[in-house]
Amino acid sequence: MGILKSFSPHNKPPKDRIFKRLTLALRKLFYLFGINSATN
């Protein structure tokens, strides 16, 4: 439920920046994993 709260535009806690960084990091990780799985 905390994740849904972070998506709502009404309340923007300082966690919101950390959450965005985490999502970007996860995207990069999945991208790299996708490349690795494709090369193997």
Q: Radius of gyration in whole Å, from Cα?
A: 14 Å
Q: Runs with pLDDT <50, length 5+?
A: none
Number of strands: 0
Overall structural class, as computed from helix and strand content, comes to: mainly alpha
Shape: rod-shaped
In this structure, how is the largest beta sheet organized? none
Fraction of residues in helix: over 70%
Oligomer: single chain
N→C terminal distance: 37 Å
One letter per element, helices H and strands E, the order comes to HH
Strand content: under 5%
Mean pLDDT: 76
Counted by DSSP, the helix tally is 2
Domain count: the total is 1
Question: How would you describe this protein?
Answer:
With 40 residues, the chain is mainly alpha-helical. The protein has one domain. The chain has 2 helices and no strands. It has helices at residues 2-7, 15-39. The chain is rod-shaped. It starts with a helix and ends with a helix. The mean pLDDT is 76.
Short description:
This protein has helices spanning 2-7, 15-39.
Summarize the topology.
Layout: H1 2-7, H2 15-39
What attributes does this structure have?
mainly alpha; 40 residues
